[in-house]
Amino acid sequence: MKAFFTILLCFFSATLLAQRNIRFEVRNARTGEAIAGATVTAGSAAGRATNDSGVVVVNAVTTRQTVTVSAVGFNPASITITGTTGDRVLVNLELSEKEEEAVIVSSTRTESRIENLPTRVEVLGYEEVNEEVGIKPGHIGSLLSDVAGIQAQQASAVSGNTEMRVQGLPGKYTQLLRDGLPLFGAFAGNFSILQIPPLDLKQVEIIKGSSSTLYGGGAIAGMINLISRRPVAGQFEKTLLVNQSTLGESNVNAWLSNRQGKVGYSFFGGITRQQEQDVDGDGYSDVARSRSLNLHPVIFLYPNSRQTLLLGYNAFLEERTGGDLLALRGEPNVTHSFFIRNETYRHSGELQWENRISPQQRLQLKATASWFDRFINNNTFSQPFHAGQLSWYSELSYLHQTTKHDLVGGVNVNGQDYGSVIKPLPAESYSTVGVFLQDDWRLHPKLTLESGLRTDFVNRYGTFVLPRISLLYRLSPVWTARVGGGLGYRIPTVYESDVDEREYILLTNSATKAERSTGGNLDVNFHKRFDEVDLAINQSFFLTSVQNVAELFRGNGTPELLNVPDGQPLETKGSETYVQLRIDEFEAYLGYTYTDATRRYMPLQPRQPLIARDKFAAVTGYEFTSHFRASLEASHIGRQYLEEGRQTPGYFLAAAMIRYDWKAFSFVLNCENLFDYRQSKVESLVAGGRPHDPVFRELWAPIEGRVANVSVRVKL
Questions:
Q1: Could you tell me what percent of the chain has a pLDDT over 70?
Q2: Confidence at residue 13, expressed as pLDDT on a 0 to 100 scale
Q3: 2.40.30.160, 3.40.640.10, 3.40.50.2300, 2.40.170.20: which CATH number matches 227-715?
């Protein structure tokens, strides 16, 4: 018996000696970030979870044992532990195929996943953009208006110009970019949203609030960065789209792209034809007649696996005419002679060079130049107004990533120059040299700090120092919070989207100070998957204050741009709430935006005109089969104040869409403004004046009424 116990004791002692504690560190294979909550299982023992640093200590045998490591959103990994395995084991998990489709944001220059950014970025991904291609193929105005906190409103009853108002601020305060390069501004900024088709885009990235630290002046309300599609190796993409609407709009768009070896290309071509329409029967066009051509060829060169060179050209040509229907149709008389014609010619070139020195280092050069030529004619002009604008932007940046930091630094030079054939334009030409530095610092697996500083030297307006800071805190795997703020500025210009073209020959610019802004935001986000259910809830708050506000004053009959005299700010504050739910093939979105926009410098009429204080939105969609999908949209736009102080009624809008895919074809039937709500049903759009020189009311609601369209897209 004594010998039996001795043998048993030796057995257990040997077993205990064959076990030891091993420290496992689990990280994201792509980013190197620690993965909290990963499960490490040794043999048949119960699994243990990693802590916030991605670390767990597991007791394993030293002979030979298989250890499995798994985490939500990652492919599991198996490791064999032997007697030669050290006391510390690093495990890198690869993202699962589903997670690989997660959104990568380029606007902050670090190419980070959206959930890892301290700056709040809203992204309309390829799925949303691709669906918009069949709904509104002519431009992205409808796509952007679906975003909470963005209000799209037609600014001119004659030309149809539309501006995007972000968080209660006029459209002039939003910076528009394409692939990180500023697009339209000042004199060239009119009709900008109406000239960008969605077929040419991969995704849209939106940053709200003062963001001039990123790309310089103009981003007081925020910035919208349009990300272009690029060719994919071995895929020859050929898409043709034809669209027709009940409002007389016809579109034909084509997209081609291919990449073979070291050379690739993409090409977009689009033609739009819109017939003039008088929806309310008052004799004036509610929809202007327009003809446009858009061409965008790009060449991609890949000298080696690390470098990419892009050379692109874009041409946009358009003629747009609105006014009295008899004048538009070639039957004018003394009474019916009113018209406004805009002819625009835009030519731009771009160059982008990228050198990925290593997986953690990138050197990038970007440059663009654009010439914009515009003719404006009216029945009251003695001769057409003709002016041009030359704009340029160049940037050199360097990115260096480490385990704790993403560092970006660079320099840019940009500017614009004006010239007029008929009348000297207000002196608005300027040039800027800017330097910037940004650091995303991962202080802790739960805490990331993003800080940035830009200094711009503007030859006519002085020096602008623009700090910016944002903080991301992961409260748990499903809860995150962000807080941030920064400064912005904008060079004042008289050429705004809400200026009547008849006033262009009278405009003067007496604004001597740049507009400056201070802004902050806070948001809390919840995101969790329950088997087939995906639920996201976001609550955000914002505050922006604009100083040295420049506005057009018409006291003596001549429009003059002036900084407001008493120095009081334009202030907007509010909140955005949205809930997004996906269950199998069903998805729903509910949103509410509250906006309080106040002009402190106008005590008698302090409310910022044409901004709805309350906006509700709801979207539902269901994919019945892999070939058939339908969606419904509804929104309620609350009361708005007009410049005169009068309040408008709130109104309800609804839309519906069905899409059917068959082989290489995609058919879309869409209807906007189902219940045909129009401002002209409430009041006349003509406020006074004479028939040949009318005065129109401010636009606060749709004027084109119910519109249906049918589009057919084929992938050849």
A1: 90
A2: 46
A3: 2.40.170.20
